[in-house]
Protein backbone atom coordinates (compact mmCIF):
# COMPACT_ATOMS: atom_id res chain seq x y z
CA UNK A 1 0.00 0.00 0.00
CA UNK A 2 2.80 2.57 0.67
CA UNK A 3 3.99 2.15 -2.95
CA UNK A 4 0.55 3.17 -4.22
CA UNK A 5 0.52 6.26 -2.00
CA UNK A 6 3.99 7.56 -2.94
CA UNK A 7 4.07 6.66 -6.62
CA UNK A 8 2.74 10.00 -7.91
CA UNK A 9 5.08 12.35 -6.06
CA UNK A 10 8.58 12.59 -4.66
CA UNK A 11 9.60 13.95 -1.29
CA UNK A 12 12.42 16.10 -2.65
CA UNK A 13 12.53 18.58 -5.51
CA UNK A 14 14.94 17.93 -8.34
CA UNK A 15 17.14 20.72 -6.95
CA UNK A 16 17.37 18.92 -3.61
CA UNK A 17 18.00 15.58 -5.30
CA UNK A 18 20.84 17.08 -7.38
CA UNK A 19 22.29 18.60 -4.21
CA UNK A 20 22.23 15.19 -2.52
CA UNK A 21 24.05 13.68 -5.54
CA UNK A 22 26.72 16.35 -5.28
CA UNK A 23 27.04 15.86 -1.54
CA UNK A 24 27.51 12.12 -2.05
CA UNK A 25 29.98 12.48 -4.96
CA UNK A 26 31.59 15.93 -5.27
CA UNK A 27 33.22 14.95 -8.58
CA UNK A 28 30.05 13.60 -10.16
CA UNK A 29 29.47 14.21 -13.89
CA UNK A 30 26.25 15.97 -14.89
CA UNK A 31 25.36 13.01 -17.10
CA UNK A 32 25.46 10.79 -14.02
CA UNK A 33 23.47 13.31 -11.97
CA UNK A 34 20.79 13.26 -14.65
CA UNK A 35 20.67 9.48 -14.65
CA UNK A 36 20.46 9.26 -10.85
CA UNK A 37 17.80 11.95 -10.54
CA UNK A 38 15.84 10.91 -13.63
CA UNK A 39 16.30 14.15 -15.57
CA UNK A 40 18.22 15.13 -18.68
CA UNK A 41 21.85 16.21 -18.54
CA UNK A 42 20.71 19.64 -19.71
CA UNK A 43 18.25 19.91 -16.80
CA UNK A 44 21.01 18.79 -14.41
CA UNK A 45 23.25 21.55 -15.79
CA UNK A 46 20.51 24.15 -15.31
CA UNK A 47 19.92 23.01 -11.72
CA UNK A 48 23.65 23.02 -10.89
CA UNK A 49 23.83 26.56 -12.29
CA UNK A 50 20.86 27.57 -10.09
CA UNK A 51 22.53 26.04 -7.02
CA UNK A 52 25.86 27.74 -7.78
CA UNK A 53 24.24 31.12 -8.50
CA UNK A 54 22.34 30.89 -5.19
CA UNK A 55 25.52 30.05 -3.25
CA UNK A 56 24.51 26.52 -2.26
CA UNK A 57 27.48 25.01 -4.09
CA UNK A 58 30.84 26.10 -5.47
CA UNK A 59 32.26 24.70 -8.71
CA UNK A 60 35.97 24.34 -9.31
CA UNK A 61 37.50 23.06 -12.50
CA UNK A 62 39.97 20.23 -11.84
CA UNK A 63 41.52 19.05 -15.08
CA UNK A 64 38.65 18.19 -17.41
CA UNK A 65 36.10 17.74 -14.63
CA UNK A 66 34.27 19.90 -12.12
CA UNK A 67 34.66 19.42 -8.38
CA UNK A 68 31.74 20.65 -6.30
CA UNK A 69 31.62 21.85 -2.70
CA UNK A 70 28.38 22.17 -0.73
CA UNK A 71 28.45 25.49 1.12
CA UNK A 72 27.13 25.91 4.68
CA UNK A 73 24.43 28.48 3.90
CA UNK A 74 20.92 28.82 5.32
CA UNK A 75 18.19 27.52 3.03
CA UNK A 76 15.81 29.89 1.28
CA UNK A 77 12.83 27.77 2.30
CA UNK A 78 10.94 29.50 5.14
CA UNK A 79 10.31 26.36 7.19
CA UNK A 80 13.89 25.06 7.62
CA UNK A 81 15.48 28.50 7.15
CA UNK A 82 17.26 28.30 10.51
CA UNK A 83 18.93 25.05 9.48
CA UNK A 84 22.33 25.20 7.88
CA UNK A 85 22.30 23.40 4.54
CA UNK A 86 24.72 20.73 5.77
CA UNK A 87 22.40 19.95 8.69
CA UNK A 88 19.46 19.59 6.31
CA UNK A 89 21.46 17.27 4.07
CA UNK A 90 22.48 15.32 7.18
CA UNK A 91 18.82 14.59 7.82
CA UNK A 92 18.67 12.98 4.38
CA UNK A 93 21.69 10.74 4.97
CA UNK A 94 21.29 6.98 4.94
CA UNK A 95 21.29 5.69 8.55
CA UNK A 96 24.63 4.06 9.39
CA UNK A 97 26.37 5.41 6.29
CA UNK A 98 29.62 7.31 6.83
CA UNK A 99 29.33 11.09 6.37
CA UNK A 100 30.00 12.33 2.85
CA UNK A 101 33.65 13.09 2.26
CA UNK A 102 34.86 10.88 5.12
CA UNK A 103 36.03 8.05 2.88
Question: How would you describe the overall organization of this protein?
Answer:
With 103 residues, this protein is an alpha+beta fold. The protein has one domain (12-91): Winged helix-like DNA-binding domain superfamily/Winged helix DNA-binding domain (Arc Repressor Mutant, subunit A, Orthogonal Bundle), CATH 1.10.10. It is built from 5 helices and 2 strands. The chain has a two-stranded antiparallel ribbon. The longest helix is centred in the middle third of the chain and has 13 residues, at 41-53. The model has no long low-confidence stretch (mean pLDDT 81).
Secondary-structure map with pairings?
Layout: H1 2-6, H2 14-24, H3 30-37, H4 41-53, E1 57-62, E2 65-70, H5 85-91
Antiparallel strand pairs: 1-2
Helix pairs in contact: 2-3, 2-4, 3-4
Structure at a glance:
By secondary structure, the protein is α+β, with helices and mostly antiparallel strands.
> What average pLDDT do the residues reach?
81
Helix content: 40-55%
Shape: globular
**Strand/helix succession:** HHHHEEH
Number of helices: 5
What name goes with the CATH superfamily?
A: Winged helix-like DNA-binding domain superfamily/Winged helix DNA-binding domain
Question: Radius of gyration, rounded?
Answer: 14 Å
Number of strands: 2
Structural class: alpha+beta
| Total domains | 1
CATH class: Mainly Alpha
In the CATH hierarchy, the third-tier topology is known as Arc Repressor Mutant, subunit A
Distance between the termini: 37 Å
Provide the β-strand percentage band.
5-15%
Largest sheet, spatial ordering of strands = 1-2
CATH architecture term: Orthogonal Bundle
**Biggest beta sheet summary:** 2 strands, antiparallel
Amino acid sequence: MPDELTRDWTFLTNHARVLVCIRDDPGVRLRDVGTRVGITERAAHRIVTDLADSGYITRERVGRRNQYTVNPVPTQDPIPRELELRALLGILAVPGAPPAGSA
